[in-house]
């Protein structure tokens, strides 16, 4: 998976938690424009998790490079969201205690997205987390799995 060369839109912002809401609202606008409000709940949740992880990774490593959100519609009705940050290291899915208050971002993405992944590109330390949604069943699948 590489960073898209064409996206329906991208949003570049500093690694600050205040931008999570803006990223989520940009995805909401794309969903409304595409008349895919059925994907809104899960797409907004997963976008929040991916952007929060990127912001936290940057802030935790002292990285001041911007975070970039790419959103594109692939094929008939498949939404791809990709979040890139320049922080070193790769995120990983962890098994967490039931009462853990953080660390669920990639677990949610892994359980709820139709497809997802983490990739590196370019010469720097950065990475991207991406996910795809398209079917009507993503939210139901998450509920059935207890996520």
Q: Mind explaining what this structure looks like?
A:
This protein is an alpha+beta fold and 147 residues long. 36% of the residues lie in helices and 23% in strands. The protein is built from four helices and five strands, in the order βααββαββα. The chain has helices spanning 19-33, 40-61, 105-112, 138-145, and strands at residues 9-13, 67-74, 78-85, 115-120, 127-133. A hairpin with a 6-residue loop joins β4 and β5 (127-133). The two termini are 26 Å apart.
How is this structure best summarized?
By secondary structure, the protein is an alpha+beta fold. Helices cover 36% and strands 23% of the residues.
Give the key terms.
disordered N terminus; alpha+beta; 5-stranded antiparallel β-sheet; single chain; 147 residues; 5 strands; 4 helices
């Amino acid at each position: 998976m590489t960073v898209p060369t064409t996206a329906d839109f991208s949003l570049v912002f500093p690694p600050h938690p205040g931008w999570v809401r803006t990223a989520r609202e940009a995805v909401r606008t794309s969903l409304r424009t595409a008349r895919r409000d059925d994907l809104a709940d899960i797409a907004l949740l997963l976008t929040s998790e991916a952007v929060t992880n990127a912001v936290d990774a940057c802030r935790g490593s002292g990285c001041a490079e911007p975070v970039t959100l790419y959103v594109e519609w692939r094929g008939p009705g498949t939404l791809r969201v990709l979040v890139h940050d320049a922080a070193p290291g790769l995120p990983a899915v962890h098994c967490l205690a039931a009462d853990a208050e953080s660390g669920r971002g990639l677990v949610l993405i892994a359980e709820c997205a139709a497809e997802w992944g983490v990739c590196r590109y370019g010469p720097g330390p950065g990475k991207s987390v991406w996910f795809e949604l398209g079917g009507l069943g993503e939210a139901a699948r998450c509920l059935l799995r207890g996520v």
